[in-house]
Amino acid sequence: MPKFRDLTDRISTTVALAPTSTGAGTSTTSGVDLNGYTACILECQVGAMGSSSTVDVKAQSSATSGGTYTDITGGAIPQLTQAGGSAGDNKKIFVPLVNGQNFVRAHITVGTAASTIGVNIIKDLDART
Questions:
Q1: Phi/psi at 86 (nearest 5 deg)?
Q2: Residue 15 to residue 5: CA distance in whole angstroms
Q3: What is the pTM for the complete model shown?
Q4: Which of 74, 77, 95, 115 has the greatest number of C-beta atoms within 10 Å?
């Protein structure tokens, strides 16, 4: 008998950033508590992108919600570019959990011009290998 009957029994989605126009510069989402979960996915949705804009999104972790966050190795989404046709695209990346670092957030860098961005963090109770 499987541990969970449905995928919806295993996962929980947190909207870390509701889709919004984000100007050039860097920003971060609030930390999402992963205590009790075994894995997570960082999902970035990109809507309209300004001319020549770029979007970089990476996962960061910390031991506490308001603590010092550091980049997670292997936790970055490949750069999205307006010139490369990334507008209207969704990208996901599996984020390796860091032992003792229960909080994860997204660090977003928008280059050149404003772009519409949303970020979800999908938490999994039973990561299977």
A1: -80, -15
A2: 24
A3: 0.91
A4: 115
Could you list the beta-strand ranges (E) of the chain.
11-22, 25-28, 32-33, 39-49, 54-62, 70-81, 90-95, 103-111, 115-124
Please give the pLDDT value at position 4.
73
Q: Which residues neighbour 91 within 8 Å (Cβ) at sequence distance 6 or greater?
A: 43, 44, 46, 57, 77, 78, 80
C-alpha dist (Å) from residue 3 to 77, 112, 127, 128: 30, 47, 12, 11
Provide the sign of the torsion angle of the four alpha carbons 110, 22, 51, 87, taken in this order. Answer: positive
Separation CA 45–CA 98 (nearest Å): 24
Task: Indicate the residue type of 129.
Answer: T
pLDDT tens digits, 53-79 = 999 999 999 999 999 999 999 999 999
